[in-house]
Amino acid sequence: MDKKEILPKDTEDKKNYLECEKWWIFALLMLVGGFYGAYTYSIRGGVFCNAQTANFVLFAMAVGNGKWHNAIYYLIPMSAYLLGTIVSEAVPRPIKKRHLIRWDTLLVLIEIITVVILGFLPESMPFQVSQVAINFICSMQYNTFRQAEGIPMATTFCTNHLRQTGVAIVKAVRKNGDRDQVSRIGNHFLMLSVFVAGGIVSTLLCGYFKGKAIWGALVPLLIVFIDLMYADLKKERDYIEATPHGH
Q: Who's near 16: CB < 8 A, 6+ residues apart?
């Protein structure tokens, strides 16, 4: 194995995690995840594109009620999400072998370009266009950003954070206020909070700007992209092939 494909031996020190694994990066991506969810549900067809559980339930209900047209409708976002997972699993290795930028950075750039394009689409455009695009990038984001400083995370939905908050609360009580568990409670609560904040901001912007509200997601995405690009070109140039935890 190429020595650059693994992280340094002291990587368990929080100061030595890759930039794409830092807490604040995940917090901004959670903000974007909440933004996407509110955007697609509010003005793009009433479906959740940042996760698929609700769509699977709606699909099952449509089949159970014999509403085949509705069932096929829900297959669209589900299929786009599956495709995003496949692409984000297959592409990173050949990308990092080029020694230019990491896949994580390229993905955020793809998101930025997608968001810009979606904002220019006319309101008459079929909802499925936005749904497929956002499902695709949400799937890639979820599959790419997996752990924040060693702790499993999801950047596009809340269930995992809610579960881990409960687990951390019990462990903190059992261990008489263990600092690590208390810290985890705070971190997961932060992720839940910024997700809700993203949804609130998205809902407000949708009320004023309709489809162009999606451009609101550009602010956190650009911050993340600039930071990751700097890490790839300067700060972490020697670890361009390093594999983040969880992959």
A: 7, 8, 10
pLDDT value of position 10: 42
Higher pLDDT among residues 244 and 51, named by residue: 244
Render pLDDT for 146-200 as a digit per residue (tens, 0 to 9).
999 989 999 999 999 999 999 999 999 998 888 999 999 999 999 999 999 999 9
pLDDT score, position 99: 77
| Single-letter residue type at 134 | I
Q: Note the pLDDT of residue 3.
A: 40
Q: What is the 3-state secondary structure (H, E, C) of the chain?
A: CCHHHCCCHHHHCHHHCCHHHCHHHHHHHHHHHHHHHHHHHHHCCCCCCCCCHHHHHHHHHHHHCCCHHHHHHHHHHHHHHHHHHHHHHHCHHHHHCCCCCCHHHHHHHHHHHHHHHHHHCCCCCCHHHHHHHHHHHHHHHHHHCCEECCEECCCCCCHHHHHHHHHHHHHHHHCCCCHHHHHHHHHHHHHHHHHHHHHHHHHHHHHHHHHHHHHHHHHHHHHHHHHHHHHHHHHCHHHCCCCCCCC
Closest CA to 42 of 203, 213, 209: 203
In this structure, what token pair is assigned to residue 90?
């297959």
Q: How much is the pLDDT for 119?
A: 97
Residue whose structure tokens are 């807490």: 23
Q: Which of 2-6, 7-11, 31-35: highest mean pLDDT?
A: 31-35
User: Among candidates 239, 199, 237, which has minimal Cα distance to 217?
Assistant: 199
> How far, in Å, CA of 53 to CA of 92, rounded?
26
